[in-house]
Amino acid sequence: MIDIKLLREDPDTVRASQRARGEDDAVVDAVLAADERRRSSLTAFERLRAEQKSMGKEVARAQGEAKQDLLARTKELAAQVKSLQATADEAQAELDRLMRTIGNVVEPEVPAGGEDDYTVLEEVGTPRDFAAEGFQPQDHLDLGEALDAIDMARGPRSPVPGSTSSRASARASRWPCSAWRCSVRSSSASSRSSRRPSSRRR
Questions:
Q1: Collapsing DSSP states into helix, strand and coil, what is residue 151?
Q2: Where are the beta strands (DSSP E) in the chain?
Q3: Spatial CB neighbours of 18, under 8 Å, sequence gap ≥ 6
Q4: Eight-state DSSP code of residue 127
Q5: Of 4, 5, 149, 154, which residue is least crowded by CB atoms under 10 Å?
Q6: What is the pLDDT of residues 154-192, one digit of tens each?
Q7: Global pTM value
C-alpha cells in the first residue's frame, strides 16, 4: 500500500502511474475524498468531545431549569459524537479499501500499458529454438510431479493457502544444499573447517 502522504502532496504523479498501468486514475480522487471525510469527521468529533467534557462540569454546578437545559444539550452532543465517530470509521474503511486498489507508483521511464507492452532493453546470446531441437520445455510443476518431488493434489488440503506439499525426496535434497551454504558462510567468517556437510535420508 502506498503512503497516503504521497497522494495528498502529489496526486498527479499517482494519477499518471495509474494511467501508465492501464488502470483507472479516478480512484485517486476517491481516495482523497474519503481521506477528507475521515479527517473532517475526526476534527468535528474531537471538538464536540471537548465540549462534552466541559459541559459535564457545568451540569454539576447548574441548578433547576438551567441544569435541565444542559442535560438536554449533553444528550444532543452524545448523539452527534456517536454519529461523527461512525462517519469517521466508515470513511477509514472506505479509504483502506480504495488504497489497496492502487499499485506502487511506476518509474517514469516504464512504458505505459500491461505486460504485453514491455520494451526489450538488451538481448544477451541467442535464444534456443526448442522446436527445431525437438525439445518440449515443461512447466516446473510438471517437472516436480514427474520427479515425485511435489504433490500438488495434497497442497490445497494444507491449512496454509496457496501451498504445495514437498515429498521426502525434495526435502532431502534441500537439506544438504542448506547445510552447504551454512558451512561456506561459517568458513568465510571464522572457521576454516573443510568438512563437507553430511547427507540425510528420509
A1: strand
A2: 150-151, 165-166
A3: 24, 25, 27, 28, 102, 103
A4: -
A5: 5
A6: 666 655 555 555 555 555 555 565 666 666 555 554 444
A7: 0.52
